[in-house]
Amino acid sequence: NAGVTQTPKFQVLKTGQSMTLQCAQDMNHEYMSWYRQDPGMGLRLIHYSVGAGITDQGEVPNGYNVSRSTTEDFPLRLLSAAPSQTSVYFCASSYSTPHSRGSYEQYFGPGTRLTVT
Amino acid sequence: KNQVEQSPQSLIILEGKNCTLQCNYTVSPFSNLRWYKQDTGRGPVSLTIMTFSENTKSNGRYTATLDADTKQSSLHITASQLSDSASYICVVSGWSGGSYIPTFGRGTSLIVHP
Question: What was the pLDDT predicted at A99?
Fold first, then answer.
């Protein structure tokens, strides 16, 4: 199993450009999520999905869109990049929601380092 | 507002020594608490998961404890190795605004010297 894969590893955008961060998992997990990690701060939840066709907002959703057409893929779209979106982005997956009273393992991808100039 | 505070912010120890990292939280209602290890340039990797009814969980040389009454958790690392050098992140999840949401701590940076 490849686990959780993310592409690209690095990306530089100019303000106003759009792009899609790709995330895929081969573990047949229903729950997938996107986080951003900024220096001196904890990871923050952007969007999450509990299954194909179902998405919801996390703590910091503004400026990001997601969709979940298949179980395997959960892309994150930046429609008009801003310098405030410079960050490291992590995708994660688990069998079911990891934040309820269950003990589902959550697996993170290697991250995408995004710089917006 | 839900908060997770970790201490110390950074820690340097010699190889072979033990250490304990602390996590205090205000998340309520509480559903579970996780500890992750994050190597530089990599994604976090799960070490332990504890629900509200558990007060200790071990994973090899890592032992996590939880006191739900005082809202405190600790991660104890025994016989440290150079490979333990990493950031250790405490994550507390709870019900907020109609869904389960995680609150991440800022992490403790551990450096193990030979």
Answer: 77
